[in-house]
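Propose amino acids for all 386 sites.
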């Protein structure tokens, strides 16, 4: 099919031929209005003519949104609410889905209870600490008594009023009381440290359960558009399950496939002319922004991304497009119809009234025309190969 449209520059019509066979990377001839000239024809053949020629590479592909991502679940539960539909515009952090999860509710309640209990245990009047503090007080009293008793027996022993065995028994009781107080103080300190750790751990656990609960409320990470929804209310959802496909509603790009044989001509910054059947009479301009070096072995093509530079199509996910990537622009080059070339680079010419085969040096070519870089002149008469 052949479509005529403006090139984006006032007063500059451009003729573009879009070839539907995406397996053939074809060059393209763009003719400006000021130099549109047909090959001179006569009954015996054609003469090469000079034209301003723009060579382009054919590519096919699809339109996709930027910031595209799949919304996934981070928790187990049943989908309770679906707050979006396909085609809806959404804002960043907007609530999209709500999951019902009794398990998460129970975990959060248990974590809150554990935190309250550990905080209560750390209070000065808590039963755990009160019992240990009472044991410390008792140990202090016993140590004081045993200390006095030991001192009394020392005086008696110096006065030969008691035996050595009685003195040693009093000394042993004093030593045991002192060690017991030290042990009770250590136990109290360790218990306080453990209770503080319990509070910290239980607080962390509560925060984790709150975050898990938030995971049951799924929000958007981007401002954009909903392209597809995968789950309905009542369905069971597990972590990692896909819920929806969202992406930018305004930032679009064309993902193109360029045949392996033409990939070496593609450079970042080259202009792209894009057409789609959805907009039959409209052409979009774009620019090559990224070239991917990995070959797709399935169709022997390379991926090329192009950003729209002017008007954009509506945000239809995966919209099929055909494109011509402008790879070179030449002023006033000699051309002949491609149908007059046979083999790879041979033509028949009229040489002093005789039909003679010669080889030419070809340049850019498209479905209809071939640039002649050597072998012919403007005065040559090229005969049909048939």
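Proposal:
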């Amino acid at each position: 099919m052949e479509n005529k449209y403006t090139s984006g520059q006032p007063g500059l019509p451009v003729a573009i031929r879009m070839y539907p066979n995406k397996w053939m990377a074809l060059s393209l001839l763009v003719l400006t209005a000021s130099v549109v000239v047909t090959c001179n024809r006569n009954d015996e053949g054609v003469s090469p003519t000079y034209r301003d020629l723009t060579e382009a590479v054919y590519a096919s592909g699809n339109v996709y949104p930027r910031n595209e991502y799949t919304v996934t679940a981070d928790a187990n539960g049943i989908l309770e609410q679906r707050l979006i539909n396909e085609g809806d515009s959404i804002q960043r952090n907007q609530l999209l889905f709500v999951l019902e999860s009794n398990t998460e509710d129970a975990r959060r309640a248990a974590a809150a209870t554990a935190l309250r209990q550990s905080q209560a245990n750390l209070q000065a009047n808590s039963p755990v600490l009160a019992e240990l503090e009472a044991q410390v007080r008792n140990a202090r009293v016993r140590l004081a008594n045993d200390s006095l008793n030991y001192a009394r027996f020392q005086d008696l022993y110096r006065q030969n009023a008691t035996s050595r065995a009685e003195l040693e028994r009093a000394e042993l009781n004093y030593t045991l009381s002192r060690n017991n107080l030290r042990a009770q103080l250590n136990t109290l300190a360790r218990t306080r440290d453990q209770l503080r750790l319990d509070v910290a751990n239980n607080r962390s656990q509560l925060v984790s359960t709150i975050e898990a609960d938030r995971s049951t409320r799924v929000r958007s990470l981007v401002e954009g558009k909903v392209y597809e929804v995968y789950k309905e209310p009542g369905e069971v959802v597990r972590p990692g399950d896909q819920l929806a496909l969202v992406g930018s509603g305004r930032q679009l790009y064309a993902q193109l496939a360029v045949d392996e044989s033409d990939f070496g001509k593609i450079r970042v910054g080259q202009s792209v002319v894009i057409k789609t059947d959805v907009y039959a009479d409209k052409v979009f301009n774009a620019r090559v922004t990224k070239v991917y070096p990995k070959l797709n072995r399935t169709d022997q093509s390379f991926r090329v991304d192009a950003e729209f530079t002017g008007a954009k199509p509506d945000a239809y996910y995966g919209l099929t497009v055909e494109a011509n990537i402008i790879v070179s622009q030449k002023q006033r080059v000699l051309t002949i119809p491609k149908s007059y070339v046979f083999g790879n680079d041979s033509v028949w010419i009229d040489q002093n009234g005789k039909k003679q085969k010669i080889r030419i040096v070809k340049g850019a070519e498209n479905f209809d025309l071939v640039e002649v870089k050597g072998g012919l002149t403007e005065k040559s008469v090229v005969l049909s190969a048939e």
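The chain has three domains: 2-66+251-383, 71-97+217-246, 102-215. The radius of gyration is 44 Å.
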